[in-house]
Task: inverse folding
């Protein structure tokens, strides 16, 4: 089982990358779980035909109880990907990070991994602050590899550097390590060179270069990933190549 956390600044395209990567793994014949760890709870929407999934925290608030089965909080999307959203507290009340920690504990109680038996688990995590619950995937051993999504924009690179530093702080405890950077282009001036400079200074690789694409937007308007929409498109092949690369790294490690 390969466990990957995808981090990046809010709005940088983590959910687009994560959803397309999940779809790519599914196309390659793998059983996938995708867990959205963002209070917006929109990570899995393009795997579910544009239909939002009720987040775990909403379920617990509205039903005033813990879910008793995975079926109450999980839904299968494109390619059989099992979709889960942690959600967050009522806006303005409570800590979103706590919602992630509570959801992870609940998923353990419900024996998510034993029941689904996934080949791949993807965590889509807000990376503006790598603290508390948002650090849980790398701190508690839920993930083994980290992908950092960034563009060449200043604040995106600033967040990417913070994420890389946070992961390195946990590496000596045998937790997750950074697998590489995913450049999600915004077409800013000198974009590749700026991201290349960051990656070189951090000692990590650019493992995928995703162009700014109208095809991604077109299929997301339909509630689909570009991998589902047309896997022959060059941008879809970028996600398939990244999925293959991650699988090969896991096979080499084993």
Result:
């Amino acid at each position: 089982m390969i466990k990957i956390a995808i981090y990046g600044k809010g709005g940088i395209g983590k959910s687009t990358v994560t959803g397309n990567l999940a779809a790519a793994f599914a196309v390659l014949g793998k059983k996938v779980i995708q867990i959205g760890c963002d209070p917006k709870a929109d990570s899995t929407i393009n795997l579910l035909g544009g239909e939002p999934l009720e987040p775990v925290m909403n379920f617990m608030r509205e039903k005033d109880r813990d879910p008793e089965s995975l079926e109450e909080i999980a839904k299968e999307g494109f390619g059989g990907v099992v979709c889960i959203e942690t959600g967050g507290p009522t806006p303005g009340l409570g800590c979103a990070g706590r919602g992630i920690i509570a959801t992870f504990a609940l998923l353990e109680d419900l024996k998510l991994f034993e029941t689904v038996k996934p080949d791949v688990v993807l965590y889509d995590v807000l990376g503006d602050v790598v603290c508390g619950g948002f650090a849980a995937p790398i701190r508690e051993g839920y993930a083994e590899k980290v992908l950092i999504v960034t563009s060449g924009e200043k604040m995106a690179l600033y967040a990417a550097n913070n994420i890389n530093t946070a992961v390195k702080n946990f590496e000596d405890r045998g937790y997750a390590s950074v697998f590489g950077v995913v450049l999600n282009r915004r077409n800013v001036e000198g974009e590749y060179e700026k991201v290349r400079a960051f990656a070189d200074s951090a000692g990590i690789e650019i493992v995928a270069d995703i162009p700014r694409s109208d095809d991604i937007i077109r299929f997301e308007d339909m509630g689909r990933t570009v991998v589902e929409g047309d896997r022959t498109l060059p941008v879809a092949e970028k996600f398939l190549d990244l999925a293959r690369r991650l699988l090969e790294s896991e096979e080499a490690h084993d």
In short: The radius of gyration is 17 Å. The mean pLDDT is 92. DSSP finds ten helices and eight strands in the chain. The longest strand covers residues 177-184.
